[in-house]
Write a structure and sequence with these properties.
- This protein is an alpha+beta fold.
- The protein has one domain: Alpha-Beta Plaits, CATH 3.30.70.
- Helices cover 34% and strands 31% of the residues.
- It contains 2 helices and 4 strands, in the order βαββαβ.
- It has a 4-stranded antiparallel sheet, covered by helices on one side.
- Strand 2 and strand 3 form a beta hairpin.
- The longest helix has 19 residues.
- The radius of gyration is 14 Å and the shape is globular.
């Protein structure tokens, strides 16, 4: 299972967001062995940028633990206050090859 989480952030908040997310992702990697990626859409609109966190290959059966730990760490770091609007979480799984 892979998680793709996107949201909008004011350009003036991007450095604070990047610093806080870096700490959260380091904790997640230490605890779950999953290295998160951070991406952003090129450019901005009305002073807002679109950012995305990517977490790939979540261990089977531990996706719930990972998601709970992620949300708790984000809240403790004060990240929701830096965002404009909600975080959108998308889950994708690998497609098994046809035999």
């Amino acid at each position: 299972m892979d998680l793709y989480i996107y949201y909008r952030v004011r350009s003036v908040q991007t450095q604070a967001l990047q610093d806080k997310l870096g700490a959260v992702q380091a904790m997640l990697q230490a605890r779950f062995g999953i290295a998160g990626k951070l991406k952003r859409r090129p450019g901005e609109q009305d002073g807002l940028q679109t950012w995305m966190e990517v977490y790939e290959h979540l261990p089977s059966g531990r996706e719930g633990d990972f998601s709970h730990t992620l949300e708790q760490a984000l809240a403790e770091a004060g990240i929701p206050a830096l965002l404009e609007g909600p975080r959108h979480v998308e889950r994708f799984e690998d497609v098994a090859p046809c035999a």
